Amino acid sequence: MCFLRRPGASAGWIWWRMLRQVIHRGLQSFFYKLGLFVSRHPVFFLTVPAVLTIIFGFSLLNRFQPDTDLESLVAPSHSLAKIERSLASSLFSLDQSKSQLYSDLHTPGRYGRVILLSKPGGNILHQADVILQIHRAVLEMKVNYKGYNYTFSHLCVLRNQDKKCVLDDIISVLEDLRQAALSNKTTARVQVSYPNTKLKDGRSSFIGHQLGGVMEVPNSKDQRVKSARAIQITYYLQTYGSVTQDLIGEKWESEFCKLMHKMQLDHQDLQLYSLASFSLWKDFHQTSLLARGKILVSLMLILLTATLSSSMKDCLRSKPFLGLLGVLTICISSVTAAGIFFITDGKYNSTLLGIPFFAMGHGTKGVFELLSGWRRTRENLPFKDRVADAYSDVMVSYTMTSSLYFIAFGMGASPFTNIEAVKVFCQNMCVSILLNYFYIFSFFGSCLVFAGQLEQNRYHSIFCCKIPSAEYLDRKPVWFQTMMNDGHQHTSHHETNPYQHHFIQHFLREHYNEWITNIYVKPFVVILYLIYASFSFMGCLQINDGANIINLLASESPSVSYALIQQKYFSNYSPVIGFYIYEPLEYWNGTVQEDLKTLSQGFNTVSWIEQYYQFLRVGNISATNKSDFISILQSSFLKKPEFQHFKNDIIFSKAGDENNIIASRLYLVARTSENTQREAIELLEKLRPLSLIQSIKFIVFNPTFVFMDHYGLSVTMPVLISGFGILLVLILTFFLVIHPLGNFWLILSVTSIELGVLGLMTLWNVDMDCISILCLIYTLNFAIDHCAPLLYTFVLATEHTRTQCIKNSLQEHGTAILQNVSSFLIGLVPLLFVPSNLTFTLFKCLLLAGSCTLLHCFVILPVFLTFFPPSKKHHKKKKRAKRKEREEIECIEIQENPDHVTAV
């Protein structure tokens, strides 16, 4: 190997160039030998992957187990909200306070919830009797377990003061309305205020989450209710932690949902929407059941597309079965990966639906590149050498892109990822990538060997019979000639590559390459890219986090219907925020009282402190010192029936004869709009910092916070880490790749595609949830997979002009890119017909990833690469110098041997 020093080049530059070429040629030599080894032992490399698939496929069937813990999957694994939950639970039992800590969809423990909606223009309060009938049916509903019948009274959460079941206060309001109706009183005499109403026992109750669609009496000082559209009732079940209790609770919830369905048929004047604790998980898992048939249709479409795109009119060189076997290779590698996942105690969840599509998009790229590499080899070589040449040509770049896939998803599976569903997906994807790589060079490589042997022996690519001679074919009918045509009539002395007749390659060479590099087309491409960049930038400024669990559920499920009705009629107030004071406090101190008022300012409060201060003012009682404050609180305030329930909100301790308040709690509710979750996050972000700077030591908690706490940061961290990892690898290999400008252009292309997908998916109403983040990680690699071979071929080309170089690059890799992206996009179409928000998100993101990659590979890069470096002028000078040198040598030979020239 000889390296000539370029004028002005430093010794360091020559050393790096030598190192790059040594590495590149070393890898090519390694894969050439690997190709030879596979071609000499095709049966072994065909059998081993098949046996592995059979072994791990059976384990997939035997050890399949779904993951039922939705919180551990989609909530941030490490969050301050979980610590706050533990601290709050150590002070006050969360199971006993479930009814006070109202949460939209994330209520802990077992429960049944129903929304009763009147017809448009109706008043739900006028149907109190019907609602109470439904309520009694729930209370009397029986669940049989091992011969014993259990009702709600056996399973409910009990109040501490009287050991009765905890029921929503709206039930008391409805009973008052019914009694008023039975005694011929007008309903106006029973005054219902909103959101706080006075109950019959004297208690003041917050019913903002139990009464919805409220219209108030105009100019009413006490906010009296004129009419309401909806009522929400929740039945809370006790949770003892035992398996038996949990099974009985699950059966009760199932019977509750069936009862609500039956009641809906009996009461057509009402609309009933029911929800239970298992509903979210059930509707999350429902996506997998709905998508099974559509995934099979998707596989059939990919098989058909791959088969057709690998076919030619030439019956000898056509490879339809190789396209088919290539897709099957990815399928069996995915089955093996799934088997390994379940053997290692993995549990299935619906987010893993994306893995077959992710694996197919990368795996079929290797399949089509190997087919293109086979077509570029010389036909006069033995088939084993042709396989080795194809490996040498293709596997270097495929190894690089597979490594980047592994790095990206490996970073996503790292401890830095705070969403368990993302981590599990990335771990499974890493296994799939490794097996894809192994199966392609082994199983598919063996198939390529057998196909090459058939071609060398002149067997038909479909019927596997000997192709007749040209003289025999000329005597046969046209249909027979068409079926058995091996392209002999197209081959001429100036056309050495019969594979040029492949319809995609022919289209690119004869039509598309000339059109896209036309000088009149380039301005329109530049304008198109500016429009693309503008919309992408616009979308990137409007990114929303996807903390809403509805994004992962089946779109026509009961949970989604319930959540939409709940959002429409019960979104006036935020979830109830527990405000826990966990250190002793001088409640009798005026400064402390002012601080508490400041903290609760702007909130609707349910507070023993506020009620106690009011009690003292009404009774004109002075309690300015500790002993008086606590004595009156215990002996007078908490003894009254309307205030007895506040005993659950205060923890007393006794040291000798002195009583102390060591902890207490109150509840805060904020006025919100329909975007309740977004505003709940803002409330958390406002209240939490105050606990660090205020003299009052407190924490705030609601079960919803566990799912939303720093969700935006948690969900975006994997794609940031993966992107940084890929960027770092590309920068560090700047001086190891064959041409550094290839890495530079690759970084720019991938960044453009990634930002385009991010911006456009935001404009398409896709939030940043775990599915969209996984798609963004995949987009990084999908873009590299398709742009890298095109760019490196371009920067290494030695043609006279950039235009000619990009034409050659498209001709060499355009067929494989178009085959893979078209198969990928066609395979996504069935996802559009799965009624699930999860699959809608998957479809949108992957469609944008494939479309943006296709746009860059075939439109943007072919035009922009003709404007910018690398320059091809030095290649032109080198060719001129070589041509001049060759002419001088020929002149010398002519002068030395004139007789030979005469003879010629």
Walk me through the structure.
The protein is an alpha+beta fold and 904 residues long. It is built from 30 helices and 15 strands. The strands form five sheets. Strands 11, 12, 13, 14 and 15 form a five-stranded antiparallel beta sheet that branches. The protein has a four-stranded antiparallel beta sheet with strand order 6-9-1-10, with helices on both faces. A hairpin with a 2-residue loop joins β13 (650-655) and β14 (658-669). α5 packs across α7 and α17 runs antiparallel to α28 (837-864). Mean pLDDT is 84; it is low at 1-8, 489-495 and 887-904.
* Biggest sheet architecture: 5 strands, antiparallel
Structural class: alpha+beta
Regions with little confidence, pLDDT below 50 for 5+ residues: 1-8, 489-495, 887-904
Radius of gyration: 36 Å
Helix fraction, binned, reads 55-70%
Strand-residue fraction?
5-15%
Principal-axes shape call: elongated
**Rounded average pLDDT:** 84
End-to-end gap: 35 Å
**Total number of beta strands:** 15
Total helices: the number is 30
Topology overview:
Blueprint: H1 11-40, H2 42-62, H3 70-74, H4 80-91, E1 111-118, H5 128-140, E2 143-145, E3 148-150, H6 152-155, H7 170-182, E4 196-198, E5 204-206, E6 211-212, E7 215-216, E8 225-227, E9 230-236, H8 243-266, E10 270-276, H9 279-309, H10 320-343, H11 354-376, H12 383-412, H13 420-456, H14 470-474, H15 478-483, H16 503-516, H17 522-540, H18 558-569, E11 577-581, H19 590-599, E12 604-606, H20 608-618, H21 626-635, E13 650-655, E14 658-669, H22 676-693, E15 698-701, H23 703-708, H24 711-732, H25 740-763, H26 770-796, H27 802-828, H28 837-864, H29 873-896, H30 898-903
Antiparallel strand pairs: 1-9, 1-10, 2-3, 4-5, 6-9, 7-8, 11-14, 11-15, 12-14, 13-14
Helix pairs in contact: 1-12, 2-10, 2-13, 5-7, 9-10, 9-27, 10-11, 10-13, 11-12, 11-13, 11-26, 11-27, 12-13, 12-24, 12-26, 13-26, 16-27, 17-25, 17-28, 24-26, 25-26, 25-28, 26-27, 26-28, 27-28
